[in-house]
Specification:
The complex is a heterodimer of chains A (370) and B (287). Chain A is an alpha/beta fold and 370 residues long. Chain A contains 14 helices and ten strands. The chains are: A alpha/beta (370), B alpha/beta (287).
Chain lengths: 370, 287
């Protein structure tokens, strides 16, 4: 399965304080329809060559819904036109801040087969919102209104909450707020990633992230039937207690040959961050097929990294199966080199040892090293 | 107009206009109960209940044998003299009745416990500033976990029946105050979404027949979605652990660390415990 992060636009209507995407609100470009058309032609060709394969398209940005409903109607037409036999193996999802979501998108999402939407939210004032002053009131009103439309039409949704310095002041309050807003859960607590000095005031260390999760976990564990879908807790239970290996892209060590970031101008890369930082360029879809992009020789260094870390920096770490050295881009941000483990490995290890194992009574057993 | 239940006064002209509808008829004069029921039946109204608002204690209400079997919600200031009430029990046993009482002067909901233990359904009238949360918690525990036989106490029984961790549980229906189920009418037929809005003259329509499909009524939609506004505040009820069964009902009187939170959290815990117990078939050894 290939995952295409389709950066339909670099523009965003929000100026989130901690956004780790290179800020291009003013200058950002959007994907012209001829590039989008070429993308669908490439997808069709790839899927015809590999009848067992699927493509997951994640509409991303910037803010993808800024492009308006008409753009997505065109996308549906292009898929119909160029992928008549393979469209059943193309799955769409979207990551949006929802502030542009209106009734106009309801039918579009349905036609794209989208049943649930990925979003993000922060109740703290002036963290998410438009303009230099980060008008969170305006943002939040639009967001809450969009939820009303979304839920009214039966769509599911889940959200990322970015843990910042401000979150550390009241972890349980944040937890209750988010799980009151979304009763079934679908909340993912991710640490803020700050790469510049300018916004260090909201940055947190891996140890602080551990303490944030640790402040919530005892309550969550006791009441987990009430809040079933909270990450990273749910995944850890699945992996450590239930024995099912299921990891996201950051921890799986297997993003190497599956991910493609497709920029508005058709340039491809490994993921959004590698594209922003000018790393791992796999060429333009004007020149290359999906097969060529997925098989690009530069990907080898990511696979080599996993093998290297397993036998060196991470040798003997009993959490290897849960982490695989973490995200290579995190490692790069610290060392300007992929061949290191991510500093967030320490957060995972620290949380499991300090909170997860003592509270649950479960002990993670690594598989035999292969 | 969807399937809303209309809460209305017993005004004859109004009832004449409500043929076939499901109604809660508000009365305050005991003399009106029997003729109103007869009239409503004649008009083929579906009577959800007669909401009888009494300003005298339950023990002094002149219950009438004609009310037997009719659904009654009796709102009274207190239970009154227990000895006088006991004399009425034989008659009331035949009634389809629920008593709505506020906290009693001792502050311990003793009247509710007495009525429940005597087999009468009872509901606690809650208001922002007069709730003894600790005592209410005791009453709730008695209601849901007490092993001695007793009648349901609301809103606890309602929450138990409705509770689903994937949804909000709004017990406003116990008090006919959930706008997704109840609309409130004055004598002229003006329609409001709550008793309070009716008193204030804040109507969503001037005639119940003109209301039509409420999903297109802006005021109605705004109101049923109004719970989301709590999430626009930087503090307050949206941050509360008890939100999912409270929905900010006590926001006005809520101060930091208000025990309304503790009560609603305990309510959720007990309800979940109750549901778990119900699922387990307890068996006792046999000789």
């Amino acid at each position: 399965m290939a995952t295409v992060i389709l950066k339909a636009t670099e523009k965003c209507n929000s100026n989130c304080y901690y956004c780790d995407v290179v800020r291009k609100q003013e200058t950002g470009t959007s994907m012209p329809l001829d590039i989008l058309e070429l993308a669908f032609i490439r997808f069709d060709s790839y899927l015809k060559s590999y009848p067992e394969e699927r493509i997951d398209i994640l509409w991303h940005g910037g803010e993808p819904l800024l492009l308006g409903a008409e753009y997505y109607r065109s996308a549906i037409e292009l898929q119909e036109q160029h992928c008549p036999e393979t469209k059943s193996r193309i799955k769409h999802s979207v990551q949006t801040n929802l502030t542009c979501f209106t009734e106009d998108f309801v039918d579009i999402f349905r036609k794209l087969g989208i049943t649930a939407v990925g979003t993000s939210f922060d109740p703290e004032p002036n963290m998410r919102g438009p303009g230099r002053k980060i008008d969170s009131q305006k943002y939040n009103k639009r967001f809450i209104n969009a939820l009303s439309i979304l839920e009214g039409h039966g769509f599911g949704w889940g959200m990322i909450y970015v843990v910042t310095k401000k979150s550390l002041l009241r972890p349980l309050d944040v937890f209750f707020f988010l799980t009151n807003l979304k009763l079934t859960g679908g909340v993912n607590f991710n640490p803020v990633l700050i790469y510049d000095e300018e916004r260090k005031d909201v940055a947190i260390t891996p140890a602080e992230y551990v303490e944030f999760l640790g402040a919530i976990f005892p309550y969550w564990w006791k009441n987990r039937h009430r809040y079933p879908d909270i990450e990273p807790f749910k995944s850890l239970v699945k992996n450590i207690i239930d024995g099912h290996r299921s990891l996201g892209c950051v921890d799986s060590g297997s993003c190497t040959y599956h991910h493609i970031n497709l920029a508005p101008d058709g340039e491809t890369s490994q993921c959004g961050r590698s594209a922003d930082w000018g790393l791992l360029p796999y060429g333009n879809i004007k020149d290359r097929s999906i097969e060529e992009i997925l098989g690009d020789g530069q990907r080898r260094q990511l696979a080599d990294r996993v093998e290297y870390l397993r036998d060196n920096d991470c040798d003997g770490c009993r959490f290897w199966d849960l982490c695989h050295g973490g995200c290579p881009l995190d490692a790069y941000s610290k060392h300007s080199d992929f061949m290191y483990k991510s500093e967030w490995c320490g957060a995972k290890k620290g949380f499991i040892e300090k909170y997860f194992e003592p509270i649950t009574g479960a002990k993670f057993k690594p598989r035999e090293k292969s | 107009m969807n399937s809303h239940i209309l809460v209305c006064p017993g005004d004859i002209n109004l009832l004449n206009r409500l043929g076939g509808k499901t109604v809660v008829i508000r009365l305050s004069d005991f003399e009106d109960v029997t003729p109103t029921i007869e009239r409503a039946k004649h008009l083929q109204l579906d009577i959800k209940c007669i909401a009888l608002h009494s300003d005298i204690p339950v023990s002094d209400i002149p219950f009438n044998r004609d009310w037997e079997g009719e659904p009654l919600a009796v709102f009274a200031p207190d239970l009154g003299n227990l000895r006088d009430f006991i004399k009425k029990i034989a008659l009331l046993r035949h009634f389809n009745i629920r008593f709505y009482l506020p906290n009693d002067s001792g502050g311990c909901y003793t009247s509710h416990r007495i009525l429940s233990s005597l087999g009468f359904s009872v509901a606690v009238l809650l208001n922002d500033d007069g709730v003894n949360w600790d005592a209410l918690c005791d009453l709730m525990t008695y209601s849901l976990l007490g092993l001695v036989r007793h009648a349901p106490i609301e809103p606890f029984q309602y929450v138990t029946a409705q509770y689903d961790r994937n949804r909000h549980t709004d017990y406003a229906s116990v008090y006919f105050e959930d706008p997704t189920s109840f609309l409130h009418l004055d004598g002229e037929g003006h329609v409001a979404l709550s008793p309070d809005e009716l008193r204030r003259g804040s109507f969503i329509g001037v005639n119940v027949d003109e209301i039509g499909d409420l999903s297109g009524n802006v005021e109605y939609v705004k109101r049923i979605e109004s719970w989301r506004n709590f999430f626009l505040e930087t503090n307050g009820c949206a941050y509360c652990q008890g939100w999912r069964v409270c929905l900010g009902k006590f926001a006005q009187g809520r101060k930091n660390n208000s025990s309304c939170k503790d009560f609603h959290v305990e309510l959720m815990d007990v309800v979940e415990q109750y549901q778990t117990m119900k699922d387990k078939n307890k068996t006792v050894w046999q000789p």
